[in-house]
Write a structure and sequence with these properties.
Order of helices and strands: EHEHHEEH
CATH architecture: 3-Layer(aba) Sandwich
Protein name: Protein tyrosine phosphatase
Distance between the termini: 16 Å
Number of domains: 1
Structural class: alpha/beta
CATH topology: Rossmann fold
GO biological process, one term: response to arsenic-containing substance
InterPro entries: Ptyr_pPase (IPR023485), Ptyr_pPase_sf (IPR036196)
Number of strands: 4
CATH superfamily: Response regulator
Radius of gyration: 13 Å
Largest sheet: 4 strands, parallel
CATH class: Alpha Beta
Helix content: 25-40%
Number of helices: 4
Shape: globular
Keywords: Arsenical resistance
Organism: Candidatus Nitrosotenuis uzonensis
């Protein structure tokens, strides 16, 4: 039986959605698989996101920003929008049935601010996983 995909989306797919993918991989119940993508992905993951995730025991260094595709949307069991900094490219504008967490973008934030964002994402992912068990 194929796993149910949970898709975490944002604009650049370089911070929040990558952290959510990493935490979901760590905490998800069996039968589920995380994916993340963005509407305008950039070339690399935010180095501070990588650093704070490593501090939390999750390695996201091998994840890469990806462009959201119709197949990702169609195959997703659930889609979570992390929040939007760019209203014109916000995934919530064109994806139906999306859950919006409205988490601030870590881009340009201090390490302490990124840690707070990470902790919020971890809490939300753990809560989500509890609903899927």
């Amino acid at each position: 039986m194929p796993s149910k995909k949970v898709l975490f989306v944002c604009v650049e797919n370089a911070g929040r959605s990558q952290m959510a993918e990493g935490f979901f991989r760590k905490y998800c119940p069996s039968g589920y698989e995380p994916q993340s993508a963005g509407t305008k992905p950039i070339g690399t993951i935010n180095p501070l996101a990588v650093q704070v995730m490593r501090e939390a025991g999750v390695d996201i260094t091998n994840q890469t920003p990806k462009t959201i595709s119709n197949s990702m949307i169609e195959e997703a069991f659930q889609i979570v929008n992390m929040g939007c900094m760019d209203k014109e490219s916000c995934p919530a504008l064109f994806v139906r049935g999306i859950v919006d967490w409205s988490i601030p973008d870590p881009k340009g934030k201090t390490i302490d601010e990124v840690r707070k964002i990470r902790d919020d994402i971890e809490r939300r992912v753990r809560d989500l996983c509890k609903t899927l068990e």
